[in-house]
Amino acid sequence: MPDFAYIARDNTGRKVSGTISAGSRREVVASLGKQALFPVEVKDAPAGSAVRVKRGKKVKPQMMAVVYAQLADLLRSGVPLLRSLEVLKNQTSHAGLAEVLGDVHAAVEDGANVADAMQQHPRAFSEMAISMVRAGSEGGFLEDALARVAQFTEQAQDLKSRTSGALAYPVFLAVVGVTVVTVLIIFFVPKFEGLFQRLRDRGELPMLTEGLLFVSHKAGAWAPVVILAAVVGGIFARNKLATEAGRVWSDRLKLRIPGLGGIFQSLAVARFCRVLGTLLHNGVPILRSLEISTEAAGNRILGAAISEAAENISAGQSLAKPLATSGYFPSEVVEMIAVAEESNTLESVLTNVADSLERRTFRRLEIMVRLLEPLMLLLLAGAVLVVVIALLVPVLKMSTTM
Predict the structure, then answer these.
(1) Separation CA 132–CA 139 (nearest Å)
(2) Closest Cα to residue 108, out of 100, 116, 98, 119?
(3) SS (H, E, C) the chain
(4) What is the chain's alpha carbon radius of gyration, rounded to the nearest angstrom?
(5) Can you give the pLDDT of all 402 residues of the chain as single tens digits?
(6) Residue 371 and residue 97: Cα distance in Å, rounded?
(7) CB 314 within 8 A of CB 287
(8) 33 - beta bridge partners?
(9) C-beta contacts of 319-328 below 8 A and 24+ residues apart
(10) Nearest to 83 by CA among 100, 99, 105
(11) CA-to-CA distance for 324 and 184, rounded, in angstroms?
(12) 112-143 b/e with 16+ CB inside 10 Å = b?
């Protein structure tokens, strides 16, 4: 939508100016009227003047969830928006958050819409939060929109922390196992080579021990090269994943990992359903909601399917059909969306779908983690056992010979 610059006056006669996105000047006038502003002048905004994006400091989503909830409580208690922003800025001990809230307060004081002021700080305010705040400020339900954003942000962070927590122990076991076996092979095994030389000269050294010594030699010789290659590969992978093509490749790979692919897919679909349902519940138009949900899904492959669905909706078709055609959305989810579209209950059904998918996905994740933990322990014990047997068999043979 195009941006319009406006000059208006409030009930006290104070001059207010800013920019707003709308389909036409008539929509701008209607939007200003809902905010109890009387337009004096409305014109096309100069290119690039709508939002002055500042890099600013990154603020953690957990902290922003608290800010949204506190701001909603202050507004519900009748505290004006400017005063609420000032209170939050003064009470926070986080320097970056205080700077962000100070900038938002100054921009709103100068007459900017609160959503436009938030949009200047993309590292603090998410696109979903900005869109919901914009819908709330234009529709007169700003405090409800902020409370909804706070709830969604907390749920998203809870989902992320539960996923990370479930995978933390298996990852720890894998790192410890690889480290222990590597130290044994590189530093411990070579000390036995001189002891086994007599058996080797007689051709009586077991094949398992011979193979272990060979691996130990190669690992010791190639360790610096492997470490250097790993560092260079890591830097290359990080730079590659920073590109759009690299992210698409990574997202496609996630969906194809045996066992974990289905979990990644279900979590992405759940995020999409929750964001879309939340936005629709707060009055954001469906095309704009789908555009935001494309990013919120966290997977570009699913995002492409959602974008295609948005194109179908703009052409007058349903949402369920292109989602089913993509093959990335479970059939029961598509069926529920189709029924919800017919009964006009899409926002509530989407939220229920997200809750159901998250519950099922975490049950699957729990089962996998419970199976993965003993498997990692068995692999670690097996690797150490192979090393011990390879070293003990020659020692026993030598003692028998003696």
Answers:
(1) 10
(2) 116
(3) CCEEEEEEECCCCCEEEEEEECCCHHHHHHHHHHCCCEEEEEEECCCCCCCCCCCCCCCCHHHHHHHHHHHHHHHHCCCCHHHHHHHHHHHCCCHHHHHHHHHHHHHHHCCCCHHHHHHCCCCCCCHHHHHHHHHHHHHCCHHHHHHHHHHHHHHHHHHHHHHHHHHHHHHHHHHHHHHHHHHHHHHHHHHHCCCCHHHHHCCCCCHHHHHHHHHHHHHHHHHHHHHHHHHHHHHHHHHHHCCHHHHHHHHHHHHHCCCHHHHHHHHHHHHHHHHHHHHHHCCCCHHHHHHHHHHHCCCHHHHHHHHHHHHHHHCCCCCHHHHHHHCCCCHHHHHHHHHHHHHCCHHHHHHHHHHHHHHHHHHHHHHHHHHHHHHHHHHHHHHHHHHHHHHHHHHHHHHHHC
(4) 30
(5) 566 777 777 666 666 677 776 666 777 777 777 666 777 777 766 544 444 445 556 788 888 989 999 999 999 988 888 899 999 989 888 888 888 898 888 888 887 888 888 888 888 888 778 877 877 776 677 888 888 888 878 877 887 787 777 778 888 888 888 888 888 888 888 888 777 777 777 777 888 888 888 888 888 778 888 889 989 998 998 888 878 788 888 888 888 888 778 888 888 888 888 888 877 887 778 887 887 777 767 788 888 888 888 887 777 778 888 888 888 888 888 889 888 888 888 888 988 888 888 888 888 878 887 888 888 888 888 888 888 888 888 878 777 765
(6) 42
(7) yes
(8) none
(9) 319/286, 319/290, 319/346, 326/302, 328/255, 328/265, 328/269, 328/301, 328/302
(10) 105
(11) 52
(12) bbbbbbbbbbbebbbebbbbbbbbbbbeebbb
Query: Which residue, chain included where needed, has tokens 């900038």?
Result: 103
- Structure tokens that stand for 13 in this block: 């006669």
| Residues facing residue 5 across a β-bridge | 19, 43
Residue 236 CA to residue 229 CA, distance in Å, equals 10
Residue 20 has which token pair?
């707003």
| Two structure tokens written together for 55 | 């890099």
Tally of CB atoms within 10 A around 311: 12
- Which residue's structure tokens are 């190669």? 218
